[in-house]
Amino acid sequence: MASAGLYAGMQGVEWIALYLALGAFVGFMAGLLGIAGGGILVPWLVSIFTYQGISIGHVVHLALGTSLACMVISSTASIRVHASRGAVVWQAVGGMAPGIILGAFPATQIAANVNPTYIAVFFALFMAVVSGQMLLNWQPKPSQKPVSFHGLMVAGVGIGSISALAAVGGGFLAVAYLGHKNVDIKKAIGTSAAIGFPLAVTGAVGYLISGWSKTLGNPYALGFIDVPAFLAISLASSIAASYGARCSHSLPEAHLKKIFAVISLVLSIKMLVPFVQF
User: Fold this and answer.
1) Number of domains forming the structure of the chain
2) Adjacent-strand bridge partners of 115
3) pLDDT of residue 225
4) CA distances from 148 to 113, 140, 153 (A)
5) pTM for this entry
6) Contact 66, 224 (CB under 8 A)
7) N or C: which end of the chain has fewer CB within 10 A?
8) In whole angstroms, what is the distance from residue 108 CA to residue 98 CA?
9) 49: domain range?
10) What is residue 5's predicted lDDT score, i.e. its pLDDT?
């Protein structure tokens, strides 16, 4: 890890301003599309933390943990707006939440001991799939089978595991799964936002615990959560998420999804740069 002096010196006003701007954009997109925004947040945090001198062996884990911690705040604001419009299927949330917890927590413990290069590659590949889905507007064929508690649990485990390893994908996978089960797109987005809360809490706690002993030399970190980044991004995203959620009920999403997909894909590929040996 970087020395305390170097790291403290990099926490200037310019970085806080960057965190605030990043949080505002991610929060707005989270509310608008029912996705976590990790496709943008994680690559940016990797770049910022690398520039600040954080060890390459911890930078991805710190970005993942911080991103999931930020999701706790942004998802709360987004849930409030979606729920006020009756756009959350609470039965689906109740069925998927236990599975998400069962999948997410063990995944964070595994991720903490995995080579960060592998996680970076997994993140980039998964974001390529997410971006492709958004660009092509692909939707799974509706299922004729009714939603079951067992099916919701299994889906929750898969969503929780993948999202904990990449801090992204929960919203994408949840919306796709609920659409497959014939849930209206507006309600699928609102339900996805609600599902993001237990996922974010479980993932953040998992990365806090798994990184506790590895970041003791960093006065600004709690486990794999960077506190200044978390506070600034959360403040901005909590405000912007409510505006995004309101807009999701009045604005067409097709073009915004494509823009978000292209930006996410480019940043995800950029995330690989520190780990590629030329």
Assistant:
1) 1
2) none
3) 94
4) 35, 18, 9
5) 0.77
6) yes
7) C
8) 16
9) 4-275
10) 37
Task: Collect all residues with Cβ–Cβ distance below 8 Å to 191 and sequence separation of at least 6.
Answer: 34, 87, 88, 89, 92, 93, 174, 178, 183
For residue range 209-246, list pLDDT tens digits in order: 988 988 877 788 899 999 999 999 988 988 887 777 77
109 vs 34, residue with greater confidence: 109
Q: Reduce the DSSP state of residue 53 to 3 states and report it.
A: coil
Nearest to 174 by CA among 102, 107, 90, 96: 96
Q: How far apart are CA 218 and CA 2, in angstroms?
A: 7
Length of the chain: 278
Is residue 68 scored above 80 in pLDDT?
yes
Going by C-beta distance under 8 Å and a sequence separation of 6 or more, which residues neighbour residue 58? 1, 116, 211, 214, 215, 224
Tokens 């998964």 label which residue? 126
Residue 63 near residue 165, CB atoms below 8 Å: no
What is the amino acid identity at position 273?
V
CB 11 within 8 A of CB 53: no
- The position carrying tokens 């002993």 is 213
